[in-house]
Amino acid sequence: MVRERFPQVHLIENAENLGFARANNQALHLAQGRYLLLLNSDTEVQPGALSCLADALERYPEAGAVGPRMLNPDGTLQNSYGSLPSVLDEILGPYWLDFLNKPWGAIGRRYRRRELEDGDYKRVDRVSFACTLIRREALDQVGLLDERFALYSEDYDWFKRLRDAGWQVLFCPQAQVIHHWGASSRQRSDWSLSQLYRSKRLYYAKHYGRGSALLLQAGLIMRFGLKLLWAIGSYLLRRVAATEQMRCQRRLIAEMLRPL
Questions:
Q1: Closest among 35, 24, 31 to 10, alpha carbons compared
Q2: Cα–Cα–Cα angle for 71, 179, 118, nearest 5°?
Q3: Residue 146 contacts by C-beta under 8 Å, 6 or more apart in sequence?
Q4: Distance (Å, rounded) from C-alpha 242 to C-alpha 170?
């Protein structure tokens, strides 16, 4: 379809799924623009969004990347930006405080919504890699995505390197993109879940050392173990759900025990 309807497009056809980082790097190698757009296949860019993002990088030369307001298909606000996580965040869940301090959270939306409506740019640690516009100079300095991250955490890794190199990241609330969250990962849910936690360990091993990675590993094993015990205890009340939960937690514990 792309070849027939958009012959001007340089189409890269891989025989297999190479993962997010490796596949995007293929395109980044070929791209020639001043600004480079990472865009998921499960997104719908709303009118004017890309112009807003480009304008942000024009106005703020210190910004190496910018991201839009991400929306769910029903128009509600989706996780659009945030801080780089700590080990505790990852053990408890990287978005565990979003309900309180983010405009898409149950409580946060009551007093943080104004951040989106004032139309101003917000300096953040990271934006959603589902749609990120990158300045070429920043990419040349920081480098491509780390292909050791087959899926997940490649964004944390890249934005960490970007910040360490002295660049800023902007959130642009005027630009809006609809994101059908998880439409790609659901196609390979077991593999995706394994990659999620493997990538978290890799991120901490790379940037904070073996000690932090081991602390995360131990914390996640404890978390999955508690969930396994809960599933066992609730087996008689919800057998089908508990059986699936036990299978999932055993698999995650086994994944945590594997070396990177």
A1: 31
A2: 25
A3: 21, 154, 157, 158, 206
A4: 42
Q: Where are the domains of the chain?
A: 2-185, 209-257
Which pLDDT tens digit goes with each residue over 30-39?
999 999 999 9
Q: Which CATH number fits domain 2-185: 3.40.50.300, 3.20.20.105, 2.60.40.10, 3.90.550.10?
A: 3.90.550.10
| Residue 26 exposure: Cα atoms within 13 Å on the Cβ side | 11
Cβ(139)–Cβ(33) below 8 Å? no
Whether 98 shows a pLDDT value over 90: the answer reads no
Give me 125's structure tokens. 């640690």
Q: Tokens 């709303």 — which residue?
A: 46
The position carrying tokens 């594997």 is 258
pTM over 0.85: yes
Taking CA 259 as the corner, what is the angle to CA 256 and CA 260, rounded to the nearest 5 degrees?
95
The answer to whether 76 touches 178, Cβ cutoff 8 Å, is no
Contact criterion met (CB below 8 Å) for 130 and 39: yes
The distance of Cα 68 from the centroid of its chain, to the nearest Å, equals: 13
Sign of CA dihedral 154, 159, 164, 167: positive
